[in-house]
Batch of 3 targets.
Target 1
Amino acid sequence: MTESDWRNLLLLSLFWLTYFVVHSALASLRVKNRFAARYPQRMPFYRLGFNVLALLTLLPLLWLFDSPLLWTWRGIGAWLANGLALSALLGFVASLKYYDGQAFAGLRQGKRGSRRPEDYECFQLSPLHRHVRHPWYFLSLVLIWTRDMNAAMLLSCVMMTIYFIVGSRLEEGKLLAAYGDSYRRYMDRVPGLIPLPWKSISAQEAAELVAAARSASR
C-alpha cells in the first residue's frame, strides 16, 4: 500500500473512534438528562436529531473507503457469503414488526411532546430475541463480515465489531437499571451478540420474562 493509503487508514480509524465516542456520549442518560434540564422544549426532538446527526456524520466515509483490495468471495464461498447476507437482510425485515419504527426514528417523541430522557420501548422479546439479546447487532455483523474486503472495509469491520461489543454493554446498563432482575435473568439465559444453540429460551419463557419486567417497572 502507498503512503496515501496508510494515511487514509489512520484518518479512518480516528474517524471511527471519534464517531463512536460522540455517539455513545449523546446516547447516554447523563447527557440526555442535562439536555432535558437545559432545553426541555427541545427534548421531544432529541432522538430525531440524534439519528440525523448519526447519518450525516457517516458521509465522510465515502472519501476514505478507496483502498487496496484484500480478498473477494468466489465460488462456493461467494454463494455462502451472499446467502448469509441475504438471510441477515430478511432477518432485519422480519424483525421490523416487533419494533416501534416511529419511536426508533424519534418521530413519535416529537408528536407526543415527550420530554423523558429514557427513549427505550417497553420491554419485549421478539422471536430473534429468544436466541440473541441484540439481534440487530448480530445481523449487522453478518452483513459486514460477508462483504468483499479492502483495507478500509476490514478496518471498519474491526472497529464496528468492537463498538457493538462495547455499545451493547452500555445499552444493557440502562436496561438493567430500568428492568432489574428480569433483564438480568434474561442475560443469564441468552447470549449477547452471537446465538448459541444451547442458550435460548422458549416463547413461554420469553412471555414470562416480559410480564415480570413490566410488572416490576410499574
Target 2
Amino acid sequence: MLRCLLWTIVAAMRPRVLLIADNLCLRQQLLVLQRRKPRPRLTDADRRFWILAYRRFVGWRTSLLIVKPESVLRWHRQGWRTYWRRRSSRRGKTRRRPIAAELRTLIRRMTMEN
C-alpha cells in the first residue's frame, strides 16, 4: 500500500509525456509476457521498440523489467555495426562511373611529366 502511494506521488510530479512513455514501455512488456508459448520470447520488433525507447525516452531503464538494460545497449551497438557493415560493403555498387582507360593513361602521363 505504501509502495503504491509513493509511486502515485512520484508520478504526479513527473511531466505527462514521461508518464505516457513509461506507460507505453510497461504495456509493451505486458504484451511480450502475454505471448506465453513455452516462455515469452522477444521478437525483432520488440528489440527495435526498446532501441527506440533508449534513443528517445530518458527514463527507459526504470520501466524495463523483462530484460537487462545492457541487453538493449548491446542490441543498439549490434544494429549500428550491421548497418555500417552493409553500407561499407557496397564496393561493387558504386554510384560513380568508372574512369575511361584513355583518361587514366592521360592522368598517369601528366603525373609522370610533372
Target 3
Amino acid sequence: MTGFSQVKGQVNHQLAFTFSLKSVNHRFLDLHFRLPSDTDSLEMKLRRLLKEKVHRGHVEISLSLDRNPEQSMALNRELVSGYIGAFRAAAAEYSLAAVPDLNVILRLPGALESANSSAEGDLESAVLAAVDGALTQLNRMREEEGRGIEQELRSRMQHIQKAASGVGGHRQAILHAYVDKLRSRMQELISAQVDPDRLLQEAALLVDRSDIQEELVRLETHVKHFLGLLDEGGEVGKKLDFLLQEMNREANTMLSKTSGVSGEALRITELGLAMKAEIEKSREQVQNIE
C-alpha cells in the first residue's frame, strides 16, 4: 500500500537530519536505501527494523544531513596520503606524466571529516530514535488506504454471492437441460439394442456429475471465510489471495460443468463469467494487502 512520512531531527547545534519513508504497492517487501556514505551500520539496523514493521511494499528510505555552514572540516590525512601514494606509483609504473587532482581527492568519501567527530557518532542513535515516529506516520496513511481497499473487497464479495445465488436459481434448469439431452441420446442408443439398465446407470452418473451444488456450497464457504479474515485484520494478504484462487477454481469447474447447455441455463455462463471478473479484480487489490 502507498504512504509517505518524514521526520526531522537534531543531533546537536552543528548537525541535523531529515528521514523519509515512501511506500508504493508491491507483492513483496522491497527496500531501497538512499543514505549518506559511511552509514553501512545504520543501514543494516534500519533494514532489520523495517522488516519487523512492514511486510509488503516497495519502500524507499532516504536520509539527508544538514550541517552547520560554520562547522569546521578536518582533512583525513591517512586516506589522502594513501590515495596520492597509489596515484604516483601507478604513474611511475606506466611512465605517465600526471599529478593528482586535489578537487577529485577531496570528493572521495571520508576525505573530509567533521572536526566534531562525536556528532557523527551520535547520528545513528538519533536516526534510530526517530524511526518509530516515521513508521507510525507511514502506517497510518497505509491503513487509510487499507480501509478503502477493504470496503471495495467487501462489495465485490457481495457481487460474487449475488451471482452465486443467481446460479443456484438456475440449477434446476441445468438438470432439466441435461435430462432432455440424455433422453434424446438414450432413444438413439435404445434403437441400437443397448441394455436399458446400463443406460439408466450412465444417465444417472452423468446427471450427478453435471450438478453444480457442491461448487456453490464451497464458493459460499470461501466467501464467508474471506469476510471473516477481513474482520480479523492483521497480516492476511496471502490467505486472502489463496481463497480467491480457490473461488476461481470453483467458478471454472461450474462453467465447465454447464458448458454445452442451452435455453435458460445459458444465464449461468453469464453469471459465472461475472464471478470470475469480480474475483480477478479482488486479486489485484489483495496483492497490496499485508
